[in-house]
From TrEMBL:
Entry keyword Lyase: yes
Protein known as: Threonine ammonia-lyase
InterPro entries (UniProt xref): ACT-like_dom_sf, ACT_dom, ACT_ThrD-II-like, Ser/Thr_Dehydratase, Thr_deHydtase_catblc, TrpB-like_PALP, TrpB-like_PALP_sf
Species whose genome carries this gene: Hyphococcus aureus
Superkingdom per UniProt: Bacteria
Keywords attached to this entry: Lyase, Pyridoxal phosphate
Family that this chain belongs to: Belongs to the serine/threonine dehydratase family.
EC assignment: 4.3.1.19
Enzyme class of the recorded protein, top EC level: lyase
GO molecular function terms listed in the Swiss-Prot or TrEMBL record: threonine deaminase activity
Domain ACT: from-to ranges: 330-406
Cofactor(s) for this UniProt protein: pyridoxal 5'-phosphate
Catalytic activity: L-serine = pyruvate + NH4(+)
CDD domains on file: ACT_ThrD-II-like, Thr-dehyd
Amino acid sequence: MDAARLPTADDVRAAAERIAGRIKRTPLVHARKLSAITGADIYLKLENLQYTGAFKERGALNKLLLLSEADHKRGVIAASAGNHAQGLARNAQALGVPAVIVMPVTTPDVKVRQTRELGAEVVLTGHDFDEAKAAAAAIEKERGLVFVHPFDDADVIAGQGTVALEMIEDGPDFNCMIVPIGGGGLIAGMALAIKDLSPKTEIIGVQAALFPSMANAIDGGKRNTGGSTLAEGIAVKEAGALTRQIVRENVDDIVLVEERILERALSMLIMDQKLLVEGAGAAGLAAILADPSRFKGKTIGLVLCGGNIDARLLSMIIMRDLARSGRLARLRVQLLDMPGQLVRVASIIAENDGNVIDVGHHRTYSDLPAKMTCMDVTIDTQGQEHLNRIIENLRKEGYEVEIAAY
């Protein structure tokens, strides 16, 4: 198939047959807890359970299987610092195809190492994706390799669309499917399959508000694009030429979600649904949280497109979620600078079943009167009501208490 032509629903079906048995058919699960919280009937497609932790393997494998034997001998190249790199590397290795992945020098070491472990030659160059892509184009010509685009390729789009076929086969009749959009490969392929097999199903794309590239491409908007987003997997500055055509014809709406809601959605998937996802994987749930009345009572399919998240970022998100729910709090308590005050404050907290996990005592760096001091105490609680009770009892004992902002 000519990679520059628009794929069709038939191409998606052919891709499904082609990659069957080589790619994990991921579960579609009924998210009962999230359904109860949101009022929508939510089903989750767990693409975070793919071998490399993301749906990208589908398109990469379909592309590789359609290449000629001569192309296999030449080898393939891609520019990517994320899931596309590992998806292509893994399947190229399985097929015995040499693979070169060009990554920016800023790529985290863990991603570089994982890509190399999957058998690819990694070239580190450039400080961002655009510079890495330019370097990949030069290497492609120099070595005669086949470039595999992460989303703007008909074969790749068809492969990604197999997600929708499985959801339609395994699930109920969906009123709506909500799909993350970066460059648009996933939603383009899925939209072709959905409109062919379930034309009444509404298709909604979701983008991080900081990267509204597809929304701009469709409605001619001039929204700023760029910034630091939790959903780095869909942080694409320019939508694909092929994908935007398919999206324009087949996708019913595109919504933009703010970072705070993305973070809340990711926390809910981890804490309430016990599923590890990356920021992009939480985008569909974020769209529901941003406008719950729109989706209330509807049967909705969400694609958890990936689960590759940095451990330090994950830790920070969990701690921030605990702080917002009142289960973790830092209190600033004013007290007289005299013996026994620290012990008394800690005793009041303990008497109210709070757990002190960190204490800071400030004498010098304070604008309080000389005979006063303050302590910052971090406590573990059972939730907001429990925290309020602890604060109330401290104040009853005469202590001035403030809650530190999170």
